[in-house]
Amino acid sequence: QVQLVESGGGLVQPGGSLRLSCAASGFAFSNYAMNWYRQTPGKERELVATITSTGGSINYADSVKGRFTISRDNAKKMVCLQMNSLKPEDAAQYYCNARSYYSAVVYWGQGTQVTVSS
Length: 118
Fold this sequence. Notes:
Blueprint: E1 3-7, E2 10-12, E3 18-25, E4 32-39, E5 46-51, E6 58-60, E7 68-73, E8 78-83, E9 92-100, E10 106-108, E11 112-116
Parallel strand pairs: 2-11
Antiparallel strand pairs: 1-3, 3-8, 4-5, 4-9, 5-6, 7-8, 9-10, 9-11
């Protein structure tokens, strides 16, 4: 059974930090690019960060460059998103996403809520 389980969301003040984690199971994790998306009500889901299977290539949305860091541990089948200097506009539901290199298969987690407010 394929699972992507996010954790680490919560309420944080502007300028604060959170670390999101995504635990994967049920598929060949090292054959998938891993991504973090976010979505707020009424808006399209936005790609925040992406990391290739070996971690050799990483990309960020312009809005989070220099503040967010994506990482992965293939042995533990986990991908993380370290979020620093959080802003109110970073508040969203954050989703972990796995995208296969060899097929059209895509997996999604259930999401974790990040709220940035004083």
